[in-house]
Amino acid sequence: MTYEGARQALAAPRRWQTMEFDFWLAILAAYALLPERSLLLNETAILGLFALSLDLVLGIAGIVSLGHAAFFGLGAYTAGLIGKLGLTEPILGLLIAGLAAGALGFATSFLVLRGSDLTRLMVTLSVSLVMLELANRLTTLTGGADGLQGIVIGAVLGTFEFDMFGRVAAAYSLIILFLLFLLARWLVNAPFGLAVQAIASNPLRSAAIGIPITRRLIAIYSIAAAIAGIAGALLAQTTQFVSLDVLAFHRSAEVMLVLVIGGTGYLYGGLVGAVLFKLLQDQLSDLTPQYWQFWLGLIFVALVVIGRERVFGFPQAVWRRIRGGV
Q1: Phi, psi values for residue 24, rounded to 5°
Q2: What is the pLDDT of residues 40-52, one digit of tens each?
């Protein structure tokens, strides 16, 4: 391959595709046309951001994790405590929560990166369980089983007050999601991200050509932890309540299921998976309030058995055909 051909091949992923514009326009249309679904849209944006952070770890860096909720929960409690102490500016709370979660990611990355995938699963799960127990024990700080109450969150940028219908919350979460997605997209397609993907593909060859493997993986793990912390902070700020649920194992399992639905390694998988997961959860809980989890689990089993590519391949082909005929 010539130099010019290599340059074009590397530049191609940075260009925005038509499907990407369609996706974000659809999100904007949902916000504008479905005001009664603002609370659901807010939850979906937060879950999508959480899934995006895990995709950086799992899909881009190839680091398996069963305890990603540790960073989500730390971000939620940090933002909640900041609001309770009187620092009510939401953007400041997001930044501090992201820094706290990123620091935890950096501190634990040295343990996570040791050993095989099974070791990483156990270490990440252990970190999450330790954080959960600490939150449960430190009742004077976290509220324990009663949750962190009395959180006060001010207007975004001193202008936009959170309302009970979730309109401001949904717009706030979607804007933060979009900005951090742009950051993640740039990062993945930058030389740093390409080096991380090379490490995930073949660590021995990457080491042979001089890529500092440990430093790159620590950096991507810390960045992903910070983004997960911001997702948790968004949940705390838009609901003004934090409970032990943010650190529970099902948080880590849920975001893993989101990536199973949407796919890993291309960033949009977490966002698409979050939309589909929340829509399924919402519709099934309306149809069968008692057994919706059974039907949701059945759909996941079918998805795994049939194959995500086969399930979503047909509508994708139809959409491409429609776009081609327009």
Answers
A1: -70, -30
A2: 999 999 999 999 9
Alpha-helical regions (H) of the chain: 3-11, 18-33, 38-55, 69-84, 90-112, 117-137, 139-142, 167-189, 191-201, 203-208, 213-239, 249-262, 268-287, 292-306, 308-325
Q: Coil, strand or helix: which one is 242? A: strand
Write the single-letter amino acid at 267: L
Residue 251 is encoded by which pair of tokens? 């948080």
Gap between the Cα atoms of 168 and 221, Å rounded: 31
Two tokens at 216? 């790159």
Phi-psi region of 211 (alpha: psi -120 to 50; beta: other; left: phi over 0): beta
Dump pLDDT digits (tens) for 89-127. Answer: 899 999 999 999 999 999 999 888 877 778 888 889 999
Whole-model pTM over 0.85: yes
CA separation for the pair 275, 47 (Å, rounded): 9
Query: Mind listing the domains of the chain with CATH numbers?
Result: 34-287 (1.10.3470)
Instruction: Show the tokens assigned to 276.
Output: 């589909």
Whole-angstrom distance, CA of residue 117 vs CA of residue 123? 10
The separation between CA 131 and the C-alpha centre of its own chain, rounded to angstroms, equals 19
